[in-house]
Amino acid sequence: MFTKMKNIDTAFGYVRSFTMLIIVGCIVICCYTLHKSFATVSLLQDKVYILANGKALEAYASERKDNVVVEARDHVKTFHNYFFTLDPDDKVIKTNITKALYLADKSAKRIYDDLRENAYYSGIISGNISQNVTIDSIQIDLKQYPYFFKCYARQKIIRSTSVVNRSLTTEGNLRNVSRSDNNPHGFLIEHLTTVENKDLSIETRK
């Protein structure tokens, strides 16, 4: 009688231990599944799909702080390309200048107004002159805000009889603003100043 009770107690203990082991295993599996699910959802949220020319391109979202320098340099480069790339066409000039002025404050508008009052753009058109800019380097200082930048570039001014190569150095500050179609980087150039703009060489065209 007592032996049977002891065997029953032992069997019950085994069943209880086995049941607890199964429950603990289920809990571990559930926790692991939840963890992997949250990790997968988080990873999918970081993915961005861009539709370009009818094709879906995969990109990854990231914090702005990870790309400040890259975006800041591209903002400065884009502004200079629009502002200093000119062709003897009034519509092209206005289009480029308008795009450039979305990226900068009144300091750029002041430079534009001064050039226009001095008939610079009229001279471009009447003289059939083309002007383009090549960016050599852009320095961004993230230790202070607004971010200070300095841009080193070269200008090529193509006239009917000559080609003039000039150095161009500008500096200013970058302030954060809201992103938009006209300002995709979300920066605004402030206190734009031309530090240097001098002739390097003049080549006679044949």
Structure description:
The chain has 206 residues and is of the alpha+beta class. The protein has two domains: 2-48; 64-204, VirB8 protein (Nuclear Transport Factor 2, Chain: A, Roll). The protein is 45% helix and 33% strand. It contains five helices and six strands, in the order H-E-E-H-H-H-H-E-E-E-E. It has helices spanning 2-45, 68-84, 90-101, 106-117, 120-126, and strands at 47-52, 55-60, 130-141, 147-158, 162-176, 187-204. Strand 1 (47-52) and strand 2 form a beta hairpin. Helix 2 packs antiparallel against helix 3 (90-101). The longest helix is centred in the first third of the chain and has 44 residues, at 2-45. It is rod-shaped and about 110 Å long. The mean pLDDT is 85. The chain crosses the membrane at residues 12-35. Keywords: Membrane, Transmembrane, Transmembrane helix. This is Conjugative transposon protein TraK.
Distance between the termini: 121 Å
H/E topology pattern: HEEHHHHEEEE
Mean pLDDT: 85
How many strands, which pairing sense, and closed or not: the largest β-sheet? Answer: 4 strands, antiparallel
Which fold name corresponds to the CATH topology of the largest domain?
Answer: Nuclear Transport Factor 2, Chain: A
CATH architecture of the largest domain: Roll
Oligomer: single chain
Strand content is 25-35%
Helical coverage, percent range: 40-55%
Q: Can you list the strand order of the major beta sheet?
A: 3-4-5-6
Would you tell me the structural class of the helices and strands? alpha+beta
- The CATH homologous superfamily of the largest domain is named VirB8 protein
Number of helices, where a helix is a run of at least 4 consecutive DSSP H or I residues: 5
Low-pLDDT stretches are: none
Round the Cα radius of gyration to an integer and report it.
Answer: 32 Å
Transmembrane segments: 12-35
Protein name: Conjugative transposon protein TraK
Keywords: Membrane, Transmembrane, Transmembrane helix
